[in-house]
Amino acid sequence: MNCWSKATHLSFSLLLSTNIMRLLNTKTLQLEEFLTDIPKYAILSHTWGKEEVTFQDIQNLKVAKRKAGFHKIYKACQHARNYGFEWIWIDSCCINKESSAELSEAINSMYQYYEDSEVCYAYLCDTTRDEDPDPRFTKLCLQECRWFKRGWTLQELLAPSYVVFLDRNWKEIGTRWSLRDTVSSITSIPPRVFEEGGSIETFSIAQRMSWAAIRETTRPEDQAYCLMGLFGVSMSPIYGEGSAKAFMRLQQEIIKISDDRSIFAWRALSSDVGISESIWDSESAYSFANNGLHIRLPLLPTESEPRYNNRIFIASLHCRSDRDGRHFSVYLKKTVGRQFVRCRPDELALDYFSPALKHLHEVIVKETPPSRHMTKKKPPGFLPDTGVFHIIRPSDAKITVLQPCIGKGWAVFNQKTGRLEVGSLEVSVTAMKCRVEDTGEVFVVIIGYDVLHNIPRFKVVTGDNLPETPADLDVIWPAVESEPHRDRAQEPLASGGTISLAIQMTGKSSRNHRILEIDYITAPDPNCRALTKYMGPPIGANLDTALEVKLPKHFDKQGIFNPRYVDDLQSTPEA
Questions:
Q1: Which of 75-89, 240-254, 519-533 has the highest average model confidence (pLDDT)?
Q2: Contact 8, 103 (CB under 8 A)
């Protein structure tokens, strides 16, 4: 998400906020407001360009279609609709940014919007999917993308449970999980964040702040505002206050809910600062007052001056480096009495020795007044006892299911519709034996569904030792279950080519519904590690009655939008 279009100062109108969420209908392109019972929705993450379609524009499609950004809106709706989503949230047109109260509410709710979405489509408008199997080329393809350099897109990368990257032609590049190593090298975010489904609570405040160090925002205040969701705090945006004041307010809000002292290392390069250790019990508490930060810290004078004339002290935060275990300290300058100010803010002192409690002092740290120029944790609700997968095989893949549902537990497969249901009280494991018609080679797709955590897992098995019985699956499954969450998998075949599997989210009302795409990729290199063919549901594929994908008349057979039909969208809903 990009910076807001105009500076906005809030007033008491913020109190009149109504907590309304608007969603865009992917068929009619009409907005609808939801107060409760918000339906399943996809969400778009993008960088803003010229002539974005605003909330006011979308009210009249005759106006909206004249803007360059309309094509992006329509393609996002089309992509979401192909996977059964009736609703999508797009920041440019779903927020009335002329209302200061609504703008403030949206900024404070943004992380939650992305966290609650079923899938986030990250549209990278300045790159094209690289067909080269070497992952190094995939990194080159992505690292110059503007999306990875913007402030707001940081939370849009971390908050959703499922992120799919799309190139400028709306073709899939990969997912946050399948590209986790590449995304980690670009963003400096540890890959385990992506392996654990975006869990960031185990990382220190300083580490999370460091992830935004290289990112830019158009408005300086947004450098602080775009981080609110990462720390679970809220505050009123005040455009015009400057980045330093905005960051000071952000720190104060974080301190109200956290005793992690690594927050005071945020100005330094602090990507490896661990969470502070609470060894002082009640003595470790700190708070803000009108005269500054009240805190107890171990203080030691620096060695550069005589002990009694020294006014520069090292104050330990009792945070350790995740890299080598050394302790972090900051520099404080004594002004008068117990009052100090932060100095040398871009430096941290490192020491292997733990600070002694006998050096604890109660101090007041006052910030230098800046110059004006300066969690997805959805409620679990009802847990179904089945996982539903629609097995999609593109017509040119020529894959035949020979024997479905080899496994233990309960499983039903409908060969005609491709619907597979697996279920048990805990984890159900089944397998499908398939054959590539071109080569005759047989492979097995193992599918498991963790009902308790609503996580599907799967694996492709090739070679001579294919599982034939539930007992065979018992041997293979523990290795599959112990792996991080997976949404993409590939396995080379001995006869050449590659079997690719992809889990796709859908707009089905059931929370346990997924699409499992199975594709056969012809490749000269049997060790191909990169996706070289777009895996998408065939246009018009009948997944079942509820997920039947139909091309509206506004598109031609290739899925290209025909603008001459846009006038009909306001009055004629699609079938």
A1: 75-89
A2: yes
In a domain, 240, yes or no: no
Helix, strand, coil abundance in the chain, percent, nearest 5: 25, 25, 50
Region 225-234: mean pLDDT is: 94
- For residue 364, what are the contacts with CB-CB under 8 A and spacing of at least 6? 289, 291, 292, 293, 294, 338, 339, 340
pLDDT digits (tens, 9 = 90+) for 410-460: 677 777 777 887 765 455 678 888 899 888 999 998 887 766 666 778 888
**Whether the Cβ atoms of residue 569 and residue 62 lie closer than 8 Å to each other:** no
As a whole number of angstroms, the distance between CA 227 and CA 108 comes to 10
Q: What pairing do the DSSP bridges indicate for beta strands 427-436 and 287-289?
A: unpaired
Alpha-carbon span 204 to 98, nearest angstrom: 36
How far does Cα 293 stand from its chain's mean position?
A: 34
* Sign of the C-alpha dihedral computed for residues 100, 101, 102 and 106 taken in this order: positive
Is 555 domain-assigned? no
Cα angle 50, 573, 513; round to 5: 85
One domain for residues 321 and 409? no
Any domain includes 286? yes
Range of the domain at 460: 386-543
This prediction has a pTM of 0.74
Residue pair 564/549 in contact (Cβ under 8 Å)? The answer is: no
pLDDT at 365 over 90: no
Number of folded domains in the chain?
Answer: 3
Quote the CA–CA distance of 414 and 396 in Å, as a whole number.
Answer: 20
C-alpha torsion sign, points 30, 35, 40, 45: positive
CA distance 175 to 193: 14
What pLDDT score does 383 carry?
Answer: 42
Closest CA to 446 of 436, 454, 435, 434: 434
Identify residue 561 by its one-letter amino acid code.
Answer: F
- H and E: helices and strands count for the chain: 14, 24
Which residues in 420-452 are b (16+ Cβ under 10 Å) and which e? bbbbbeebbbbbbbbbbeeeebbbbbbbbbebe
Query: What's the rounded Cα separation, in Å, for the pair 55 and 111?
Result: 20
